Amino acid sequence: MKILHLVNTVSRPNGIVNVVVDLSTTQVAEGDDVVVASAGGYYQDLLEASGVRCESIAVGDRTPQGLIRSVQQTRRLVRTFQPDVIHAHTVTAVLVARLLFMGVPVVATVHNEWQKSSSLMRFTNRVVGVSDAVTKAMIARGVPADRMRTVCNGTVGSPREPEELVPEELRHPAVVFVGALTLLKGIDVLIEAFADVHQRLPEARLYLVGNNDLPVTDDFLQSLGVDDVVHIMGLQDPFPYYASADLFVLPSRAEAAGLALLEAMSLGVPAIGSRVGGMADFLDDQGGGLTFPSEDAQALADLIVRCLTDEDLNADLRRRSLEVAQQHTVQILAHQYREVYAELLR
Q1: 232/216 Cα distance (integer angstroms)
Q2: For residue range 226-260, what is the model confidence (pLDDT) as tens digits?
Q3: CB count, 10 Å around CB of 103?
Q4: To the nearest 5 percent, what fractions of the chain are helix, strand and coil?
Q5: Any idea where the domains of the chain sit in the sequence?
Q6: Whose CB has fewer CB within 10 Å in the chain, the N or C terminal residue?
Q7: How do residues 255-265 score in pLDDT, each as one tens digit?
Q8: 174-325, what's its fold?
Q9: Is residue 6 a contact partner of residue 59, using CB atoms and an 8 Å limit?
Q10: In a 10 Å sphere around its CB, with 0-12 CB exposed, 13-18 middle and 19+ buried, how is residue 1 labelled?
Q11: Single pTM value for the model
């Protein structure tokens, strides 16, 4: 099968990009002919080394001139590559694909349902939610149910994981968060909760791995008395941190699926997530971990302390994390998307 993926960039850190990398490389490994069109970025070398052809198109440029240029470049690419299906991963990519008027079926994946503009993804042949929660939300927003499908993110077997995984040297017990340090990710709730954790477990440490977009300042940490126990690590490869973590926490206010959560679980890390979006699918519905009400810092603090002090619970959570993660491999991801493509081609 010939598959053309359209995405804004292949840079990190970006959950959408991670899915595109995992999916496209697995598709090539299974015999498909795959092109990723984007503005390029960090993962381009990995894609090309895996046999994915990369084309430079600034798909994410929403200016009128940029959109016209992207459509023209993509039209030329479609004429030469002749894909069986176009897979769009962002709203702008959907606009580019629909303006081609070339008769190629288009699949759109909704990675960030909370964005109002994601409603535009209905103008495709199939719309895929990355969790049951996203699929239900998109149907509620007017996407016909017969055009919606659910394909949960899968990360086990990802080529993004280092071949030789060396755990980061952390002080223990170590709580790890991976993602942009933003209000959307609930980073303020996590730090407030950890101030309480610090009073009860002074030896505990919190490691924040990702861009400090808020930003979280030293003054803010000092005001809560956690400047010595909360460590802002910046953008780094998260896998060594997962490998060393005693607990992973994702306290988002909105989360379509929580790819970082699944990555941590794939290494057997006990996981806590807020009860929003697709995280409940992994943690509550599939039994992979613990959840708390979003915004409730006290409830989160209580769970963190419980997980770090109850050895039986910690061991049980490690087992459950691995069991759930093994249901979400990159091979399963690719096979489920192949079924969506095959529906259209039939």
Answers
A1: 8
A2: 999 999 999 999 999 999 999 999 999 999 888 89
A3: 6
A4: 45, 15, 40
A5: 2-154+329-345, 174-325
A6: C
A7: 988 889 999 99
A8: Rossmann fold (3.40.50)
A9: yes
A10: middle
A11: 0.91
